[in-house]
Automatic annotation (TrEMBL):
<dbReference type="InterPro" id="IPR008557">
    <property type="entry name" value="PhoX"/>
</dbReference>
<dbReference type="Pfam" id="PF05787">
    <property type="entry name" value="PhoX"/>
</dbReference>
<protein>
    <recommendedName>
        <fullName>Phosphatase</fullName>
    </recommendedName>
</protein>
<dbReference type="InterPro" id="IPR006311">
    <property type="entry name" value="TAT_signal"/>
</dbReference>
Length: 704
């Protein structure tokens, strides 16, 4: 009964949007089949208070008493700083990672790519693209070639991993001639990776180890091709930065207030400070000090034995989507056959060691990556950092689950400019201590929201909001929970303070040009169904199939503010559908878009959006829209990915000459296999996830 294939529905059966059931199975362990993990009856701001806004735009919140925080306050917080990581002698170029964007706009004149179902990567006229890396390519010098008949943990640990998601590009030289590409490998699909696959049980332990090694991250040095926007893997020189980080063997240090707590201690790590591996790394971000953050997302699906936990532990496991009824949850990967720590019956704390934000220093190949407990534990989509005006750094984060929350972290310490070893050593500690907040949203038109997506009479889905303090250093602000509990079981803390239940918050990214924050809310077909929470102004459609974008503006332009206003600049779908909105732009000129997932910015602050699970019948794609000025909402499709695939990553280089995307799970369609692939991309044989770079043939800036 544990055979994953037997659980698969008919060929090409869709779940939500065009996302195939095979993707649901492998990527998130059929999260949508399980009960909504957030069963809390927390009422949120819109229910509890008058939804009026005062003239100053401040929430009038008399009824919520202690939950209301000081207006416009900043924070400093105590919190003991831990020692700087050892060995911060990386050779980092004098590049200002925090100043990539300017405020402004540039007309987007390219001809939009139409929706399509082609098994190709399609770019606009006048553009070209190439595959930079695909599954199995050499990362560590001397890696063996991909041989699907003989994959082992050791071989895969040197090769490019599977199902690339986040893409970051960090310059090694100020000219951008050489760069470091950092990529997440979110999950594996054994049906499409191993010949003759029948079930997880039938895989050899060595194949399981290969799958574990195909998770994690890759760091690879690239070089520009001539003077174009194209990049290729550097195949000469030392390649000393090239590195694989895996779920199989890479050691991580745990930092922050929950490090060493009883919740993180295991038989193999009685101190609770060192974890082997990282799981389900989804999106991420580049920090102003030149490191990469990566979110551990659907970690729940890798564990078995939750049925044997105590009642108290079961409640915590359930809130994180871990099955507590069956020894083997449906779709189990059976990794405990290779490593018993994935059996919660033997090692009940092991699940607590995943679900964190991971920081990797790609400039120091010897550095040990870290899991930062100060940023909380949930199904982290990713984290994106901005330096606030007062010098503290702020990380914005989403918990990608139906009806889960938006968070931000504010560092205790201030960012130090420059890339000297001293500055960098300091900046590498910024995410180890600070304050974690969760968002509560208020509304301006609550009474008008009927779930249809009809725009309220004040012309906007909008409102105000506040950041509720959960924990600062070792001090908890959540009744009945210690700081370590708040950080390790952050979802439960969010429930207690009445955070706003959102439609799957994916990427949450500040524009470095304006400080405004953009949230991709990908979809939530459970919204307003059964006993689930009804539509509200921030999640205004019942059975939300197409998702929306939320813009969050911190009061006073201060990213450490405790209050903000928000609006929905884009409500996705077919522009002909009246339940869509594109900032009032002429809908006849807008590309259809569905299921926004990752967001990014170019150097003039245009918003780029990639999609996961187009519910309009087209392949997924990458879109761009100006987000300021008269062209705001003029959304155009820039590229589409091959059949079955998802568009991940997007990254636009600071010179606007190159757009990178990750093509994740091409050909992931039920019934497909290695021998009978549903996609032949990119090499004409079986499907392989890969990273693509796109550039303008005439060398001009992308999009213009
Ligand atoms: Fe892995 Fe939230 O997408
Ligand atoms: Ca309104
Ligand atoms: Ca994602």
């Amino acid at each position: 009964m544990s055979d994953r294939r037997r659980l698969l529905p008919l060929l090409g059966a869709n779940r939500h949007g065009s996302r195939d059931s095979m993707t649901c199975l492998y990527r998130c362990g059929n999260a949508c089949d399980h009960p909504v993990p957030n069963t809390s009856d927390n009422q949120y701001l819109g229910d509890m208070i008058s939804t009026e806004v005062s003239r100053r735009g401040v929430v009038r919140a008399g009824a919520i008493g202690a939950l209301v925080l000081g207006v416009g306050g900043s924070l400093a917080g105590a919190g003991a700083a831990s020692a700087a990581p050892a060995g911060t002698t990386a050779d980092v170029p004098e590049v200002d990672f925090a100043a990539r964007q300017q405020s402004g706009s540039r007309a987007l004149t390219f001809k939009a790519v139409p929706p399509n179902k082609l098994d190709s990567l399609i770019v606009p006229n006048g553009y070209d693209h190439s595959v930079v890396l695909r599954w199995g390519d050499e990362v560590v010098p001397g890696a063996p070639a991909l041989d699907v008949h003989n994959q082992t943990g050791a071989r895969q640990s040197k090769q490019f991993g599977y199902n690339n998601d986040f893409v970051g590009v960090l310059p090694l030289t100020s000219s951008g001639k050489r760069v470091l590409l950092v990529v997440n490998h979110e999950y594996t699909n054994e049906d499409l990776m191993f010949p003759g696959f029948t079930s997880q049980d039938a895989l050899t332990v060595e194949q399981v180890k290969a799958a574990m090694a195909a998770h994690g991250l890759s760091v690879v040095e690239l070089e520009r091709v001539d003077d174009t926007g194209e990049y290729r893997v550097r195949d000469n020189g030392s390649r000393k930065y090239n590195r694989r980080i895996t779920a199989l063997a890479t050691k991580f240090d745990v930092t922050g207030p929950a490090a060493g707590s009883a919740y993180l201690q295991t038989a193999a790590d009685p101190k609770g400070r060192t974890v082997i591996g990282t799981l389900n790394n989804c999106a991420g971000g580049i920090t102003p000090w030149g490191t990469v953050l990566s979110g551990e997302e659907n970690f729940n699906q890798y564990f078995v034995g939750g049925n044997e936990a105590s009642a108290d532990v079961k409640a915590k496991l359930s809130r994180y989507g871990i099955d507590t009824t069956n020894r083997y949850p449906s779709g189990s990967r059976k990794w405990e056959r290779a490593d018993e720590r994935f059996d919660l019956a033997k090692h009940p704390n092991e699940a607590n060691r995943f679900g964190w934000i991971v920081e990797v220093d790609p400039f120091d190949p010897e550095s040990r990556p870290r899991k930062h407990t100060a940023l909380g534990r949930f199904k982290h989509e990713g984290a994106n950092v901005i330096v606030a005006k007062n010098g503290h750094v702020v990380a914005y984060m989403g918990d990608d689950e139906r009806f889960d929350y938006l968070y931000k972290f504010v560092s205790d310490k201030k960012f130090e400019k420059g890339n000297s070893n001293k500055a960098r050593e300091h900046n590498l500690t910024l995410l180890e201590s600070g304050t974690l907040y969760v968002a509560k949203l208020g509304y301006t038109s609550a009474a008008e929201i009927d779930g249809s997506g009809k725009l309220p009479s004040d012309g906007a889905f909008n409102g105000q909001g506040q950041w509720i303090k959960l924990v600062s250093g070792d001090q908890s602000f959540v009744e009945g929970m210690t700081a370590a509990e708040v950080l390790t079981f952050t979802r439960l803390a969010g429930d207690k303070v009445g955070a706003t239940k959102m439609d799957r918050p994916e990427d949450v990214e500040p524009s470095l040009a304006t400080g405004k924050v953009y949230v991709a809310l990908t979809n939530n077909t459970a919204r307003g169904t059964g006993s689930n929470p009804k539509a509200d102004e921030a999640n205004p459609r019942t059975s939300n199939r197409h998702g929306h974008i939320l813009e969050l503006v911190e009061d006073g332009g201060d990213n450490t503010s405790l209050t903000f206003t928000w609006s929905l600049p884009i409500v996705c779908g077919d522009p002909a559908d009246p339940a869509t909105y594109f900032s009032g732009y002429d809908k006849t000129k807008v590309s259809p878009i569905s299921c926004p997932d990752n967001v990014a910015f170019d150097s003039v602050g245009n918003l780029w959006i990639s999609t996961d699970g187009n519910a309009l019948g087209s392949n997924d794609g990458l879109f761009v829209t100006p987000i300021e000025g008269p062209e705001k909402g003029h959304l155009k499709q820039f590229l589409t990915v091959p059949v079955g695939g998802e568009t991940c990553g997007p990254f636009i280089t600071s010179d606007d000459r190159s757009v990178f995307v990750a093509v994740q799970h091409p050909g992931e369609i039920s019934g497909a296999s290695l021998e009978n692939p549903a996609s032949n991309w990119p090499d004409g044989d079986f499907a392989k996830p890969g990273v693509v770079v796109t550039w303008r043939v005439d060398g001009g800036p992308i999009g213009a």
